[in-house]
Amino acid sequence: MTTFELGNLFYLVLLTSAIAFWFFTSNRQGFGKTLQQAVLWALIFLGVIAVIGLWEDISSTVMPQQAIITDKGKIEILRGQDGHFRLTLDVNSVPVTFMVDTGATDIVLSKQDASRVGFNPEDLPYYERAMTANGEVRTAPIRLSKVALGQFEDRGIPASVNEGRMGQSLLGMMYLKRFEKITISGNKMILTR
Question: 19, 43, 137, 173 — which has fewest CB within 10 A?
Fold first, then answer.
């Protein structure tokens, strides 16, 4: 333990002792009631300590920050609780959350996301085929007018719409190859342009 940590520990012990002394002397009611209140305060105190100790995990779960865009042309994407990287792009000025999939060739939109960004999935020609982990699916080729991620904006990006059901749209290498470098380090994916 460092000197600073020992000082903090001494302060906490002194503070706890003072509170306990005040608590027992000011509560002249029955010992059982005083003990019950002391246990309740101890549990509250432990709860506060637990929240402080786990704050980083709690904040990343409750308020996940999906990407950090730096001024040096880097985008840092944090890994989600399920182990996947997700990124929200503005597609035709509509925010769409993608699962980053380095094994996918194209940007593949679900029917729901395709509809949100201005396409009618029922009118699209599904004549292309793609192999997925669930087998072969039919896709319709489309072109996205504008795809923006922070300061980076691209126009006329080819993509596909999956005819089948998709839980989430996929961001494949058709978009990722626009970055000079893709690095995965720990729980971060870093895109550099």
Answer: 43
Taking the C-alpha atoms of residue 134 and residue 144, their distance in angstroms, rounded to an integer, is 26
Residues whose CB falls within 8 Å of the CB of residue 174, separated by 6 or more in sequence, listed in order:
105, 106, 107, 157, 158, 159
| Per-domain boundaries in the chain | 3-53, 65-192
**65-192 belongs to which homologous superfamily?**
Acid Proteases (2.40.70.10)
Sign, CA torsion 82/98/191/129? positive
Q: Report the amino acid identity of residue 171.
A: L
Tokens of 181: 């470098």
Please tell me the pTM assigned to this model: 0.63
Specify the 3-state DSSP secondary structure of 180. coil
Distance in angstroms (rounded) separating the CA atoms of residues 126 and 161: 8
Q: Which residue has the tokens 């949100």?
A: 116
Give 47-90 pLDDT, tens digit per residue. 888 777 776 666 555 545 566 666 677 888 888 888 888 989 99
